[in-house]
Amino acid sequence: MKKFLYWACLAGSLVLSGCANQLSAPSQASDTQAATPTTAPPHTPLYPQGPLQPITTAQTSPHAVAPLFAPSDLWDRIRRGFAMPDLEGDLVRDREQWYASRPEYMQRMTERSRKYLFHIVEELERRGMPTELALLPYIESAFNPQAVSSAKAAGMWQFMPATGEYFELKQNAFRDDRRDVLASTRAALDYLQKLYTMFGDWHLALAAYNWGEGSVGRAIARNQKAGLPTGYNDLTMPAETRLYVPKLQAVKNIVANPKRFAAELPLIENHPYFEMVDISRDIDVALAARFAGVREEDFKELNPSLHRPVILAAGTPQILLPWDNAKAFERNFQAYTQGQYASWTVWTLPSTMSVAEAARTTGMDERDLRSVNGIPPHMRIKAGSALLVPRSATTRADVASKVADNGQIAFTPDVVTRRTTVKAGRRDSVTSIARRYHVTTADVAAWNDVKSHANFAAGSSIVLYLPVRTSSARGATRASPGKRAAGKSVKHSRGGKPSKSKRK
Fold first, then answer.
1. Given this model, what pLDDT does residue 65 score?
2. Of 338, 363, 361, which Cα lies nearest the Cα of 350?
3. What pLDDT shows up at residue 230?
4. Which of 2, 268, 283, 343 is 20 to 30 A removed from 472 (C-alpha atoms)?
5. How far is CA 118 from CA 66, 212, 369, 382, in A?
6. Torsional class of 477: left (φ above 0), alpha (ψ -120 to 50), beta (otherwise)
7. In the chain, what is the straight-line distance between the N-terminal and C-terminal CA atoms, in Å?
8. How far apart are CA 388 and CA 308, in angstroms?
9. What are the residues whose beta carbons fall under 8 Å from the beta carbon of 212, sequence distance 6 or more?
């Protein structure tokens, strides 16, 4: 039996070796034809000449291995693109607790973001930037494109007027691109890339986005001069900036692991929410929304830069519409035969005039003229201002591009001030004088170079700048400077202006 097994194994090995020789024969033949030597030379490893050099970041990709499957939703896609170093510390944990303990607030923010988040992630990936930055509008504005700060920063990326102008965001009488979804995102990412190039650190770049590049640069210089480190946690900065990156890190941590914080993120699918549609004629916002089959409120959320109830095609040649509604808009726009697309046009004022006079000239109700053009009370409209007025039935031409793209509206006070001197009573203070003459304590203090809680010596002279009202039609007439206290004299001097004021 043993001999039988021996011979069986030997026969099997011979058969297998024959098969192997047959299978390898074509390869050997081709090798022989391709190379003259009958035996291949031994492999010689290649070594670099000179010292080894480190691989720079520009030579590597943040995504070394491409995943084989598409992200299940947009949150998953954002998580895959996280590339910023994590910030640790008590401030991060404090902000995590703050957000996690407010599920309704988080739900509102994330629901609002679903209209814009896909576009932002697309732009970040196209530029090779960390996808954490897609979460920054949660910190800036809670993803509200109509948000305006006390410092007059606007939009979901919160651009100040001057910074918006620097990054070519138009701000005119008809639109404010600081609120525009596409334009403001482009400008914000341009700015963040610029700051990262300046500081070489994303945390410092974010601090500069909040505090200003000059402020961060000076803080770094102070630390360098003192021989101190210059990282984000090492710089002396305002409390708002100190919390800025911890807030972003906290939101990042919640998005990365919502179960850990008992948070529920709404499903945001990994596809575009809106489509860009061309318009070739001026069109009322209400009519555009009707063509698209969406509510006017939803239309404005995708086109938040529009100031007025009409879209001027020469200045805003594209609008954003929900993906499923874009084709409906195009069909209805082409098929419309019921008259003008726009019921408004623009009138440029030939001279400075009152609101009442402008209303009479255009045939509008004064309240309607104020409302549609955002004219504040006690103001006259300056010459050259571009006012939105009703379009006549015979008007066919749309607003010219020069006006649509650059039109502004400017005002001058309907009330001018005159320098006035009053004598202080025995118990007069900055507060009592401000109350008596209907001005602010800050102004009284600034005009007289005293503190806002100061008292005046009896009989001392107090400088005030009190209103002189101008008539809408016939020039200026002086108004009463206020109720005089018994026994106090009032003197006026012409043409004066405040020499000192702390108001901006």
1. 53
2. 361
3. 97
4. 343
5. 20, 28, 39, 43
6. beta
7. 109
8. 8
9. none
The pLDDT score that the predictor gives to residue 33 is: 38
**60: CB partners within 8 A, 6+ apart:** none
Token pair of 18 as six digits = 């024959």
Query: In one letter, which amino acid is 187?
Result: A
Q: Tell me, what's the pLDDT at 469? A: 61
Nearest CA to 69 out of 267, 236, 270, 253 is that of 270
Say how far apart CA 121 and CA 113 lie, in whole Å: 12
Local structure of 145: helix, strand or coil? coil
Whether 125 sits among the annotated catalytic residues: the reply is: no
Q: In one letter, which amino acid is 426?
A: R
Specify which residues 322 forms β-bridges with: 274
Residue ranges of alpha helices (H) inside 257-365 are: 285-292, 296-302, 326-335, 355-362
Q: What pLDDT score was predicted for residue 74?
A: 97
- Name the amino acid, one letter, at 404: A
Residues in the chain: 504
Q: Write out residues in the chain with pLDDT < 50, as ranges.
A: 2, 14-64, 471-504
Pairwise CA distance, residues 18 & 11, whole Å: 11
- Smallest CA-to-CA distance from 318 within 307, 306, 328, 308 is with 306
* pLDDT given for residue 9 in this prediction: 53
Q: In the structure encoding, which two tokens stand for residue 250, read together?
A: 């906290």
Q: pLDDT tens digits, residue range 430-470?
A: 999 999 999 999 999 999 999 999 999 999 999 999 887 65
CA distance 184 to 16: 71
**Is the CB of residue 265 less than 8 Å from the CB of residue 110?**
yes
Nearest C-alpha neighbor of 256 from the set 247, 269, 265, 246: 265
Strand duo 461-471 + 475-476: pairing: antiparallel
129, 134, 370: which is closest to 251 by C-alpha? 134
Run of H or E residues at 126: helix 117-127
Per-residue pLDDT reduced to its tens digit, 185-229: 999 999 999 999 999 999 999 999 999 999 999 999 999 999 999
Return the beta strands (E) in 178-298 as ranges. 274-278, 283-284
Tell me, rounded to whole angstroms, the distance of Cα 482 from its chain centroid.
44
Kindly report the backbone phi and psi dihedral angles of residue 456, in degrees, each rounded to the nearest multiple of 5, phi listed first.
-100, 145
pLDDT of 10: 53
Calculate ∠ Cα 286-289-291, nearest 5°.
110
- 8-state DSSP, 392: P
Rounded Cα gap, residues 233 and 41, in angstroms: 60
Residue with tokens 């000192």: 500
The radius of gyration of the chain's CA atoms, rounded to the nearest angstrom, is 35
What pLDDT score does 81 carry?
97
What pLDDT sits at residue 413? 85
From 88, 123, 125, 140, the catalytic residue: 140
> Alpha helices, DSSP H only, in 293-354?
296-302, 326-335
